[in-house]
Amino acid sequence: MEFNAKQIIKRRVALGMSRKTLADVAGMPYNTVWRIETGQREPLASTLVALAKALRLKSVNYFFQKSARGAVD
Asked: What is the pLDDT of residues 26-37, one digit of tens each?
């Protein structure tokens, strides 16, 4: 499975969260979230766990799904 940063963006937007809010809730710097979402950085496992919790997900597996074709990401 390959990490899909678009899934973070998709979930964050669906929850009405800004990057800043996500970073604050996940307990990490804004730049970390920005770099992950823009594909400039591969997240550590611990970072994925923090993001999943902040995005109210039960599992990090959501981040490894492909985005649906034609969906707005």
From this structure: 999 999 999 999
Supply the pTM of this predicted model.
Answer: 0.86
Q: What distance in Å separates the CA atoms of residue 55 and residue 25, rounded to the nearest whole number?
A: 9
* Domain 5-57 CATH (choose: 3.90.25.10, 1.10.260.40, 3.40.50.720, 3.40.50.1000): 1.10.260.40
Structure tokens at 4: 């899909």
Q: Which residues of 19-34 are buried (b: 16+ CB within 10 A; e: fewer)?
A: beebbebbebeeebbe
Query: Of 16, 49, 32, 19, which is closest to residue 63 (Cα–Cα)?
Result: 49
